[in-house]
Structures are given as C-alpha cells and as structure tokens.
Amino acid sequence: MSDADAAFEVVAEGLWRSFSKGGRTIDVLRGIDLRLDPGEQVSVMGRSGAGKSTLLHLLGALDRPSAGSLRLGGRELSSLGDRELSALRCRHVGMVFQFHHLLPEFTAVENVIMPAVVAGETFEDARERALRVLGEMELDHRIDHRPGELSGGEQQRVAIARAVISKPNLLLADEPTGNVDDRIAYRLVRLFEELHRSGTAVVVATHNDALVRRFSHPVLTLTDGILYPSIAPVDNGGCLGVDIGATNRPGQIKAEAAGGPVVRRKLG
Ligand SMILES: Nc1ncnc2c1ncn2[C@@H]1O[C@H](COP(=O)(O)OP(=O)(O)OP(=O)(O)O)[C@@H](O)[C@H]1O
Ligand SMILES: [Mg+2]
Description:
binds magnesium ion; 31% strand
C-alpha cells in the first residue's frame, strides 16, 4: 500500500439496489449508509437472501447501485466508466467470493499470483508472497493443483489467498468460512486482523456466529435492506456494539441514524 492510498476511505450513502423479475421489482438494498476508514473492519450478518452478497458486490464495484452514492478512495463510482472501475478494483479491492470463481485452467499458485501481477508486481515477488499465504492456509502441498483437483474448502482457501496477497485497501469476504474447518477459520481471522492492522478496511459477510465472535470489531445486521448495528459477544466476555458505544479496544464507535445508520469506528 503506498502513501497515496493511506487515505483510502469507503463511503456509501443511501445505496439502493433493486432487481426486476417477472414484472416485479425487488428492492434488496434500501438505503445503505456505511463509512469505513483505512484499517476498519465490520462484519455483516443477515438471513439468507437478505442482500449480503449484493452489498459486497456493490462495495467491490462489481455491480452498480440503482440509487445512492459510493466513494472509494475519494472517487465517486458513478462517474467512472467500466474500464476505470476495473482498474480501481484491480488496484484497491480484494474479494473472496461466496462461489470462488477460480480460473480452472490455472494452478492454485497461479490463481493467487494473477491479480498481483496484473496490478504490476513482478512475478517473483508475487510468487514469494503467494507461497507464504498458501502455506498459512495449509496448502503447501496443493500449489500445483488446478481448481478441479481441489476440494471445496481448498478452493476457498486459494480464493482467500488470492484476495489478500496484494494487501488491498478494501477486502470484501463473502462467507469466507463456508467450507473450511475451525482451524483454518482461526488462521483466517489472524490473516484478516493482520491485514486490517496494516491499513486494509475489511468487510466480512457471514452466517458464522463463531467466526464473528473471534473478531473484535462491530457487527452489523442487514434486515429489510437496511444495515443496523448489532451486538456481538467477544472472546474476553465483553460486549462490542456500535449502538451502545461499548468497546474492548481503544477507539471510538459512533452510529448515526440518517435514513439508515452511518457507522464509523476509529482505532486509537
Ligand atoms: N440478479 C438478480 N436478479 C434478481 N434477484 C436477485 C439477483 N441477485 C440477487 N437477487 C435477489 O436478491 C436477494 C439477495 O440476494 P443475496 O445473494 O445478496 O443474499 P445473501 O444475503 O447473500 O444470501 P445468502 O446468505 O444465501 O448468501 C435474494 O432474494 C435474491 O434472490
Ligand atoms: Mg450471499
């Protein structure tokens, strides 16, 4: 991450996403307000179909909102063309998809290296880091396997490695533990915490209560198309909730109701 990226903020205001299906309009997101400074992390929970993946796709500039504004690193996305969006994604955003989207003809390590090389890194540097992160994900022995030769959980771990090796400004992880066991989930928590300490803003969408309990950051609930602060118990027995301002870490949490809660948390 360069100094120029240091002020990379995520600012969503009134994000709305509707889909038309069979003559009906479904309003999945109905005014999402969310603000993340570099190094902030939130989890988004919500029932199946609540719109978590839809939200992450918008935040990752893979989809455009029906209304509302999204600024990434000071740039309003609605003013950017597809090519500029793709460049912004490539440079700043890492995404762990719910369905992994690995390139089937490339090996695990090649899949991981690809975005870093496209973003301008040398092959050797990218490979060195890829091997470290794949080792962290306990995949040393699978680096030359193609996705079709990997289990679901192994594919998911490759997708995680791919999303993190470029140290993106914004990491979006959609059900990152859907197919992995507890030990890998614990490693993932450590990996994400390492990233967000180094300045990456992280948004994790998950159903996994146990995962959320291991993170010590705000948990938001997506219900009826709006993000609400919620309370999550944390490992030290404390309570971390953006609506009550209690925290087990130095910092400040503020929630404002303005059409939907604006969540802002500063690490001290
Ligand atoms: N392209 C689309 N066209 C029509 N409806 C869509 C489209 N994409 C998503 N939806 C609808 O939007 C709603 C939210 O979907 P989304 O995938 O965001 O949910 P989710 O919270 O991620 O669920 P899960 O926990 O099951 O992954 C669903 O009801 C889905 O059917
Ligand atoms: Mg989903």
